[in-house]
UniProtKB/TrEMBL annotation:
Domain of life: Eukaryota
InterPro entries on file: NA-bd_OB-fold, Transl_elong_fac_P/YeiP, Transl_elong_P/YeiP_cen
Domain Translation elongation factor P/YeiP central: 92-147
Entry keyword annotation includes Nucleus: no
Keywords recorded for this protein, A-Z: ATP-binding, Helicase, Hydrolase, Nucleotide-binding
Nucleotide-binding listed as a keyword: yes
GO cellular component assignments: cytoplasm
Family annotation (PANTHER family): ELONGATION FACTOR P, TRANSLATION ELONGATION FACTOR KOW-LIKE DOMAIN-CONTAINING PROTEIN
Protein name: MCM DNA helicase complex subunit
Example of a GO MF term: translation elongation factor activity
C-alpha cells in the first residue's frame, strides 16, 4: 500500500458526500438525490425532523420531514430502515453582496477570492429587496451547485417582522 492509499480510498476521500444508512441521518443534514436517469435533475433535501414509525407485522420505517432545497417546498418521506442515502457536506463560503440584477433575476456576490457568484432568485425568495451591497451571506455549495443560502440576522429579523416565509434560511437554528 502506498502512502496515499488505494485508488478507491483516494476517490472516496475526494467526494463531498458519503453514502450512509438512513439510520445515521440527523436533522440539519443535507441529502442528495439523483433521479433514475443521468439527465434527471439532482435534488437536495435538508432534513428537518426524523421519527421511527413502528408497524405491526412489517419492518419499521423512518418518517423524515424535509425542505426540498431545489423547489423550496416542505415534504415528508417514509424510508425503509435498510435504505442508503447520500449525505452531502456542503462547502460554505462567506460572500459579500454586490448587487441584484433584476433582468437576470440573480443576486451577484463576491467570495473570499473576489470571484463573482450568481445566486438564483429561488434561493433567496424575496430577500433580495432587503439585502444591501456589502451585506455578508453564506453560500452553501456542492461542487459548482449552489444549494442553500444563509442570510444575515438583520435580514432574518426583517423577514420575520413582515411575515415572509423564511424556510430558505440555512443556519437559523
Amino acid at each position: 500500500m502506498t502512502i496515499f492509499g488505494t485508488p478507491k480510498q483516494l476517490s472516496a476521500s475526494l467526494r463531498r458526500f458519503a453514502t450512509t444508512s438512513i439510520r445515521d441521518v440527523r436533522p440539519g443534514q443535507v441529502l442528495k438525490f439523483q433521479g433514475k436517469f443521468e439527465t434527471s435533475p439532482v435534488q437536495y433535501w435538508r432534513v428537518n425532523d426524523l421519527g421511527v414509525v413502528k408497524q405491526t407485522g412489517v419492518a419499521s420505517t423512518l418518517a423524515i420531514t424535509y425542505l426540498n432545497l431545489s423547489t423550496m417546498k416542505n415534504g415528508r418521506w417514509k424510508a425503509q430502515m435498510k435504505e442508503r442515502v447520500d449525505v452531502v457536506e456542503l462547502d460554505t463560503k462567506s460572500c459579500q453582496v454586490l448587487y441584484y440584477d433584476e433582468d437576470a433575476r440573480m443576486l451577484i456576490v463576491n467570495d473570499e477570492d473576489f470571484s463573482q457568484i450568481e445566486v438564483p432568485l429561488r434561493l433567496i425568495k424575496g430577500a433580495e429587496k432587503l439585502l444591501q451591497a456589502g451585506d455578508s451571506i453564506g453560500v452553501g455549495m456542492d461542487g459548482d451547485n449552489i444549494v442553500q443560502i444563509s442570510l444575515p440576522s438583520s435580514v432574518l429579523q426583517k423577514i420575520r417582522s413582515i411575515g415572509m416565509d423564511d424556510d430558505h434560511t440555512a443556519d437559523d437554528r
